[in-house]
Structures are given as C-alpha cells and as structure tokens.
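Example record

The entry below shows one chain as it appears in the dataset: sequence first, then structure tokens.
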Amino acid sequence: MKNQENILLNIKDLHVWYRVYGGYLKVLNGVHLMVREGERVGLVGEAGCGKTTTMKSILQILPPGDFHIPQGQIFYKGQDVLKMSFKELQRLRSREIAMIFQDPTAALNPVFIIGTQIGDVIKYSAAFEENEHKETIKEQSIKALKEVYLPDPERMLINYPLQLSGGMKQRVCIAMAISSPRNLLIADEPGTSLDVTIQDQIMRLLNEIVEKRKTSIILITHSLGVAKEMTDRIYVMYAGTIVETATPEVLFKNPVHPYTKGLLASVPKISGGGITKGIPGKLPSYLNPPSGCRFQLRCEQGDPICSEKPPQLFEVEKDHLVACYLTQR
C-alpha cells in the first residue's frame, strides 16, 4: 500500500440527508472512501444506493436547501471540502476536479452553443492564460471533441445541445471534462447514452488519459466487468454504505460480503446456464432505514446483532475491507 502522503481524496464517515415532506431521507450512512494520486477507483452498486450523491457531495453541488450533512468529512489534498468558502469551491470545480454526469441533457445548458460551454471550461481552468487568444480556446475545444470521436468537431462548436443525439451530448460532456488538466476525474456512468462500440472507445480513452496525465479517476458503473478491467480498487456500495472494498483480483476471487456475492451471482454468464438468481427484495426506505446493517432485510445469513448497530469496515486480509458481522465471528 502506498503511504498516506499520496492520498488525494479521503471521505470519512459521510452522512447526507435529503429534506422531504415526511422528514429526511437518510441516504448516505457513514461512507468511507479514499483515492490516491494516480489511482483508478471503481464505485459499484445497484441504482439508488447513493453513488451519485457521494460524488456530488465532493463538489458540493447537491440541491441547495434540500440536503443536510449531519456529520462527516471530505478531505481533498488535506483540506476539508465541507469547510471551503464559495471562492475555494469554485476553484476546486474549475481547476482540480471534473465530473462527467450521467444525464448529458441535464448537464448541458440548452441556450448556449457547444463552443461557448466547452470554451468556458477551458477559459477558467488552471492551464489557460488570461492573454490567450480566442482562437487558442477554439483549437483546444476542437482537440477535445476529436478525442471523443465526434465527427466534424468544428461544426459541432456552433450547434446547440438540442441539435445533438444523446450519445453526442454525452461525448461533449466527456470532452468538457478532459479539455483541461485535472487531478481527479469523476465519471458517473459515462457510457450510459452510448452504443456498445463507442462505450468501449470512451472507456479506453479515459484509461489512456489517466495513464498519460497521471490523473486519478472515480468510475461509477453498474458493470462489474468494466470495473474489473478499468480500476485498481473497487468499492461496493449498498443503501448509502460501503460494504466491501478490495482490488479487482481479490474481490472477484474472494468476495466476502453477502451483497457482493449476490452482485457477482447476478451477472449473466456468456455460456448460458439459465437465469441468474439475483438478490431478492429491494433497497430499504431511506425515510425509515433499518437501525443496524442496511442489508439485513435481504441477507440470508443475518444474525440478531445485524439489527442492533451498523457493522464497521473490518480488514479480512491486506487491503480487503468488509462491513459485515460474519467476518468478525
């Protein structure tokens, strides 16, 4: 394991609640997550388990007035993001961390052309000099669009988002994220709106960028295969908690948490063999979540202690942490 000085991002015991009519949705329940310099980290779990909320918390872009963080810390380069001023947060978003959002239609402003939107990202980045000419911004914009395999990038600059297909808009969002140097890239299901062949190209591109620029990346994905191929370490999230983390080799060879085992068992086999079993049940209500382990209602191996208090991450082997009482018997 690399020393502690190489830690770029460190999330500790993060809780995030959303305010709704009936009270608070207690979505994140003590999330622990760490990213080292130049590391590729995967975050997997079923839809609605809090992956995107965790990432938006890093950039502090959750809906204003609708969320509450009762406890937790988010350290970026040793500085607590939750205590940053507005100016410091603006610098963090424009020069340090870039995020590729899952929904490109919502991420792009419909009233501005693509050239204006990608140009603003370049203009306010650390690599841009104030005296640089507009043509330089245009050249960098075209270069970024070419990198994501968009046809006729010069014409693309004068188009509005509504003139593009879903896949094209997604690639524009990726181009915006890679158009200027960043220390951390957050990719929230970057291949959602793309066809299979372009998905593979984009994943390879992101991998090349990380290798070439020594950039760290957090890849949110539902595909365990993508996480296995693309990352150095995987975090498995369930209902707002990290239940297991390990390297891909260890996680796929020796999954320990019942939820991780269920996810792996749910992956269809290329060779056939019938319908996968899946995981019975559904995510618990965040309005009134279980008092102990949040997976207890769907777990076939639970003990009475599972309903008493949430299990903490426990090291079962080197760099392999699991939050389950089964490992502590």
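Notes for this example: The radius of gyration is 21 Å. The chain has one domain: 4-328.
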